[in-house]
Structures are given as C-alpha cells and as structure tokens.
Amino acid sequence: MKTSKNILIHLSVLVLALAVSSCSDKLDTQEGQLNTGDIDYTDASQMIDPLIGAYYEISSLGWEEPLLLGVRGDDVNSGGLGDQPLYTETDLFNYDKDFWMYNQVWNSHYNDIINMNTAILQIENFMEYANETDFARGEQYIAEIKVIRAWLHFNLARNWEDIFIITSNQPEAELEQGVATKDQVMQFISSEMEEVIPLLPDARPNQRTDLPGGITRYTAYAMKALAEQELQNYQAVAEATGAIINSGLFSLYPDFYQLFKKPGELSNESLLELQYSDYGSESGEAFYHLYAPFGPQNWDPARENAEAGWGFYEPSNKFIGFMIDRNETVRLETSVLFTPEGIAELQAEGYTIPSFVSNVTPSDDVINNYVRADFASGKHYLPSVQLTDGRNNYGAGKNFIVIRYAEILLMYAEAVTRGASATAIPADEAVNLVRERADMPALSGVTTEQVLDEKFAELAMEWGIRYYDMIRLDKYQELSYDGRTFTAADEYLPYPQAQVDALPLEATNVDTNTALNDVLSTLNR
C-alpha cells in the first residue's frame, strides 16, 4: 500500500440527490477534510475524491466575490447604502487599496488555485499505480481541475491586470518570477485549454452520469474563447465558440425567467454552473451560496417566512431605461425586481412604464420600498414558492450559472462581425436565436454594435460581463453615467495593500504597487 502523510487536502463527499424534485441529479457535496495519510493510492476508486473536493472549493466562493467581480458595469449599481461605503465607492470607480473586499477576493481566488493544484497532485499520485483505463480517467479529472483553475486566473487578470500564474502548491519559484501580464495570463489559459480539450468528455455537462453538471470539453472551449476575446483574437474566438455551436449539443432554455431559477438548473444551456442543494430536506445539511446580498431588503413573500435580502446589488436606471427603449419584455421582467419608488423614479425621468412592470413578480412575491436601493436583481432571485419547505434563506439552494450558451452565441456573433471567418452558423442566426427566446424581432445584417447591445440586454448583471466588454473595447463613455467619470486609469483595481505588505518587494520583480496574495499561508492550513 502506498500512502502519503505530508499534506492535508480539502475533500468533499459526493452525495447523490435522492429526492424526486426539479433539482434532482445535482452534484451535491458536503465539506470535509481527509489526511492524505489515509489515502491508499493503489485504490483507484478513491481517485475521484480530489476532483469532488475541487468542485466543492470552487462552489464555496464567498458572497463578496460575485458582487465585487460584477458591480462596476453600467448595468449594475452597488446598492447597500448605509453599509460597505467602500463597495459603493468601487462602483463609482474610486478605489481604496485597503478595502477588505479586494483583499478577500484576491486571497480566496488564490487559495482556491492552491487547492486546485493540490488536488492535481493527489490525482497524479493515483495515476502512478493506475491501469490504462484509470490513468485516462485521471487525465480527465486533472483536465477538469485545470478548467476551474483557468477560470480563477481569468477573474484575477480581468480585475487586477498583471497577476501571478500559479500552477504548483509550492509556488516559491513562480513567485520569484514575478507577475505575468494580462495578455500572458490569457495566452496561458488559451494554451492550457487547447491541451485539455481532447481529455474531457464530449458531452454537455448535464449529460455526465458520473458527475452530473461536471465540466466537459465544451466548458474548456468556452474558457478558451473568453481568453481569446480578451486578447481580441476574434478568429480564435470564432473557432472555439464555433466548436460549441457545431457540436449540436447545446440549446437555449425556452423559458428565460425560469432559466435562473430551479426549473432551469443544469439545462442544455449551461456550460459551467455552481451547484447547491439542501437535499430536498426541511432541515439538516445544506450547501448554499449566500444570495442575500442580491435580494431586496423588504418584501412580502408569497410563501410565508421566506427571508428578505440585503439590497447590495441594484440594476441601474441606465440598464432599465435601455430595456424600456428597446421594448424588451421577457428579459426586463426577468432581470429586474421593481419597487414602487423605483417605478415612480423611472416615470419622473420621463419613461413610459410598460403595463407588465410591477412590484409584484410573476411568482407573486411583492417587492416593497426599502432604503438601500430602488431595484434588485431578478437573475439572482429565487421565488419564495420554489424554496424547500422549512428553508427560509433568501435564494436557498439556488444554483449559480457561470457560463451559458447564450453568451457563446453572442461571442461568436461579435467575432464574425469583427471580421472573423464564420466557423458555424451566420452571425445573424446566432443573434436571432437569442432574440427569439426574448420575444424580440429578428435582425438582418447584424452589426458589431447591435451584438454589443444584445449582450447588454441578455447578459446584464452576470459576472461583470458588460463591464469587461466595455474596458476591452475602450468604451469609456458608456461607463461614464449617472455622474460617474470613467478613464483608462479606472480599468483595474489596485493591488490590496495587505498583499503588497505580505511579500518582499524583490520577489515580485515589478514596482511597489505589485504583490501576491498571502498564498503561501494556505499551505500551512
């Protein structure tokens, strides 16, 4: 028997959802730790455990992570008035390097990267003793973890520009090399995705039977496309997104409203989705993301005792006005929860409010006025009637979509309108597939600007997609709204001061504003 006794890894236990419900067949997990001295590396049946641990780690993101990654676009305002003032200042492009949230997101992402690298090492230990079949399985598991690791590096580079690429759980040598430029990070991601694609299942995530919702080669294609888009290599974007389209495996979930709720979980549209559950039980173990920051502070839920939120994430008046001017119905009603004061404010600004706009959601939850915001995000809202009986947390058990097919179609269309050769369907068809679901009329001869407008309408409030599009294209005038003035100096967050202080300057090989998160500390946990 071969065992290792020198490190601890985070490990999760796979729990299959047994309840017959709309959220069955999830990759459900609960946290644990396992001393690797207890692992028999000759027992290939245990090789999946580090992979499940990796999925647990990425799903255990803090509540502040999606908020910080997404708040700076013209689609979202911070809300949260009276609390977290530096979060509000971030939304206004006034950055304080001492703000705890910057340090926390930086730390959390690098901590997860270290855990990904540790999981890879564990799987490699199993592969030393594996037969041909299990060796190939190990290669697939490592490939899945590398996709997760790529997404983490991707987020860091889009927010801080020049960052450390860490591929080891003993990264001293990598730290000594200093930071990589954002372009180098994106090229690293693209190249690594090219390597892992053949090792991953040729299927949708929801077609996997071993880990339903797990990563497949099309998730890797999506990550490659996202990285190439940041590099503005639009032919490579068209090729990667075209591979997803040409697979014929993906389609848009027919009900845009339910896509972001329990009926839409692990749909044929999903390429990467963080999974949560209370296992269909009224009490006991539950694995949730904390959605309260996204929710309204004051509501009358259709289901008694459902808790309200914190009011920290508000669709902007600019976005809502844009949607009204476009005669959007399905996507506006889905994306925004309206308060009476918010509706009155829009009327005072001169908008003619469509008849369907109400402070009562299609699921009969009543959104009341509250101090911190006039609107809340409908994409992060779970109707109270979809909560498991006995569970009252805002959004309890709701999954979190990260990458979906609609984004792939629109990335493809943008690339083609920018001169890339079509590798799949025409750009018009890609855009019109998205518009059709939204009950919007078809376009012909679609332009790049029309594609960008479509991305605004379709993908608002999702992971900062709008913001990163605008800085990629230097569309600073779009981000200068509601009294804000955006310049090139505002594109990236400052390095957290705690990280500048954590690493000796000479280890960075860059200026005094550069630092590593305290990634080394994770090795001693």
UniProtKB/TrEMBL annotation:
User: Ranges for the SusD-like N-terminal domain?
Assistant: 100-206
Compartment annotation? Cell outer membrane
Which keywords describe this protein according to UniProt? Cell outer membrane, Membrane, Signal
Which residues, if any, are the signal sequence? 1-26
Q: What is its main location?
A: membrane
- What are the residue boundaries of the RagB/SusD domain, all occurrences included? 269-488
A Pfam match: SusD_RagB
Q: Read off the InterPro entries from this record.
A: SusD-like_N, SusD_RagB_dom, TPR-like_helical_dom_sf
Q: Say which family it is in.
A: Belongs to the SusD family.
Q: What is this protein called?
A: RagB/SusD family nutrient uptake outer membrane protein
State the species of origin.
Salinimicrobium tongyeongense
The lineage is: Bacteria, Pseudomonadati, Bacteroidota, Flavobacteriia, Flavobacteriales
